[in-house]
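Onboarding guide, step 5: your first structure request.
Type a short instruction followed by the sequence, for example:

Predict the 3D structure of this protein.
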Amino acid sequence: MNIKSHLTPLVAALSMVAGLAAAPVAHADSIRIAIAGPFTGSLTQYGDMVKQGVDTAVEVINAGGGVLGKTLEVVTIDDGCEPKQGPVVANRVVNDKIGYVVGHVCSGATIAATDVYDNEGVLMITPSATAPAVTDGKNYEMILRTIGRDDQQGPAAAKFIIDKIKPQQVAVLHDKQSYGQGIAAAVKRDLEAAGIKVAIYEGINAGDSDYSAVITKLKSAGVDFVYFGGYHPEAGLLLRQGSEQGLKNVRFMGPEGVGNPDINAIAGEAVEGLLVTLPADFTKDPDNAAIVKAFADKKRDASGAFQMTAYAATQAIAEGIKGAGVNDPAKVAQYLHANSVKTPIGTISWNEQGDLKDFRFDVFNWHKDGSKSLYE
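The system replies with structure tokens like these:
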């Protein structure tokens, strides 16, 4: 949707003239990067994680002289993690003549926005959208990630379940959305290929407040392990209501979407022992000490799921502009496709369709005090 279509012709014309007159003054010395993600709704903490990473990277880059003599400027745009808002936000970015986006955060909104960015020459790097459908079969030039895909994360989770947990009866649940269902399907496929029975494979409705029916099914089936593909609000309710309804000796596991400190307030003590696949804890790398300090100096936490991947996305944009020698998103994208970039998540490079050639997911224990520890 073109946002300007809601303006009267006169107002639109005046706005366009005013924009053309003001743009050189407001932005002549800056390069704008939009953050597209949830800043309202139940998933705002994921947007905050990404914003912390982008803001920290921009501050470090600007303190070092900026890019091609210009400073980086952050523009934050809310999509609520809603797929229908993806194209709306993307068109706003295009209309505002912003050439670079870190985001979108959630896979559904990302998938909905990518055609606009690729068609209009905006470079988008998502630090968090893991669904394969973001890039599969699209032949995009302008869409990249700084995180692995669900078909990397799902097999990593399944291998851990097979090798470490060795359950007898498994349930695989999902929230019926692009991200959750995609990763749940990958886990189910690999478990069944290894001969582990998936007794229940079922979708739940995101946003519901009562999951008693599915908990009853878990109890009746004698399930001893549950994998849930989705986000923390639903995972937290499943944990809490399962505990309240006598679902005993059952361990839960989920992807990075459940790895949010807000899950503790929902699940209470039932969250203890939840297993979560997350990007490796890049704060433990000694080479990142200065970056971790930069986060801490601003009272930000660098150890969340997406702070470092968002930092890496911002750094990749900056290095791409430097490498291309010009502030031209298409040329920056060409440079990044052809070159590697050193970032706090490692030296990264992309395949032809914009996915990272390599990415590491680890398994963590989640604790009732909100901390996490590497499963060893």
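Each response can be followed by summary notes, for example: The two ends are 49 Å apart (CA to CA).
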